[in-house]
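Reader question, answered in our methods column.
A reader sent in the components of a multi-part assembly and asked whether the whole thing could be modeled at once rather than chain by chain. We filled in our standard form and ran it. Here is what they sent:
COMPLEX SIZE: two components
ENTRIES:
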Amino acid sequence: MQADQTEEITLHGIRGSQGICIGKAYLVDREGVDVVERYYIDKEDVKDELNRFKAGVNKAKNELAGIIQDIPEDLRQHAYILETHLLLHKDKMLYGKTIELIKNEQINGEWALKKASAEAKSIFKNISDPYLQARAADIEHVTDRILRHLMGAKDVDISGINKRVILVANNLSPAETSQIQLDRVMGFITDRGGETSHTSIIARTLEIPAVMGLERATALINSEDLIIVDGNEGIVIVNPEEETLVHYEELSRRYEAHKKDVVRKSGLPATSADGRRFHIMGNIELPEEVVAVKDHGGEGIGLFRTEFLYLSRNDFPEEQELFDQYLEVIELMAPQPVTIRTLDINGDKEIESTPSPDEANPALGLRAIRFCLKNPDIFKTQLRAILRAAAHGNVRILLPMISGAEEITKSIQLLDEASEELKAEGVEHRRDIELGIMIEIPSAAVMADMLADLVDFFSIGTNDLVQYTLAIDRGNRHVAHLYSPMHPAVIRLIRHVVDAGRHRGKKTYMCGEMAADPMHLPILMGLGIEELSMAPQSIPKIKNMIRKINTSDVEKLTAVILQQSSVEDIQQIITDAYGDLLHEDIYPQ
Amino acid sequence: MNQLKNNLTKEVTVTNKLGLHARPAAMIAKIAMQAESGVWLIKNGEQVDATSIIDILSLSGTRDSRIILKIQSPSDMEILEKITNLFDTGFEE
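And here is the structure of the entire assembly that came back:
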């Protein structure tokens, strides 16, 4: 079905990434592939048809092999799914079956392939495992690629787009996304996918609007159509009328101006309306991300995850390699602090260097500090690298997954040993640096008053703290909706930690996702958490909101919130008090 | 006869966390394709072709599943060993 040229259509989808854009659509087409011609083949032509099919498969395979070849080195680890696609081209169930169908039913290659593909996909539909169910999409991607070559359909060469467009797709495959020249894309819209799909994540990183799960976008939109993408509301408007266009041009202008204003001011300090100074820092994983933190006005690194150097390799990194990486980050960020979290592996991130131990419940298993204390050699190598790097800038150490005092004293002992060794070897280092612990296990939160004597600061890791406190596995869709950082138990627990620290002169910071959500900000400010660390892109927004909030107001508000017993009531109180401010971020006046 | 049959099959356990997902299936299929004759995976009596990723995935071999590997010809012993080794090392995951 094609839209009438003059008719304005509004499509509702899922918000993938904030922002508004108006532009020409570029259909990443499966055009022609959806409509497969069907015809019968004469007996004497079957051989030719088979050859045509085989040639199509080979072309498709070669094309994909070329794409894999072109994937940059640093993204290679994601290429295995494409290698699987490569093998699928000649899979018995797809390739063999199609050949059989062409021979036995004397039907054309496209039709036979469609039939074989549908049959293969149906196998997965009946499997209860959601991972395996999703593999039907792999079969579809491969089928489409072969069909395109069989039908001589023009290849979707996203890499050749030469003007700024809005990409319209059914569902962008990892292969397609890896081809896109992202600076040519103003926005993304897709029929499928959601907030956590690959495309949404890319759009948010690029800070361009995206709307997902529109279902009929590719059916209704043609290339070159004028469309409006409103990622704030999850709306796409096709063929907008003059009036709509004017309205959205104004909205878009205001939003862009607001965003620019926020970014421009991101270099300024985050001081509340009544003059209290807050520090907003960035979370990073790779040394090069320091640049993004600085660009977005981050005042240091509140969380430097150190796992990446340990992943995708068969051995453990040498001290010198770790030192070089840490030094790079510290020197780039100096004189502002860099909080290095020691190794947190064998939980949701598995490490390949060690054979995965038999664990049914890895989130509650041998990971992070538990793993490190059990492998003191690995741990000490990292501690030595940190102490050496600390001689060149402002460094804090952060220990993950602490559940009690003993883990802290053991870690301090290892730090002392590392320092003694370095001293004996005459290696430049610094021992007197701040030591903190992650508060992410409820037992540590409850014991915060005792633990405060052993450390210099606390940093709240909200993702795990919420998950462990509420006993919710966020990966389990049956209970995921019950996960909420605004649960009164979580807020009380955080209050307890902040107070326990304050009584002993120790500060509490926050480095979890909760810190990046404007909705949570009034509570965090009200509790007196003065240092928040988050993904670099969120820094300007949070700084901007802090400047508009009065700490005495949020302190009163938080006192009321602490008397509530439900998530809904707490959300309502915040919306009543700060709804306008939260709304302004999306629709600036 | 029985002796021969035993030699041509081997029982293995899925030890990696994610089970027989796309990557392990591709690793198995790649090796099985080099065999001179048939290679199969059997789980709970259900037999699938080891050269087909789709077939392997359809077994739904989650962690701790027990799988019987079977080859048709003794000349493919090396293939049998290679695939056994993949299972034993948890597909290097």
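What stands out: The beta strands of chain B are 9-13, 39-43, 46-49, 66-71. Chain B has one domain: 2-92.
Send us your own complexes using the same form.
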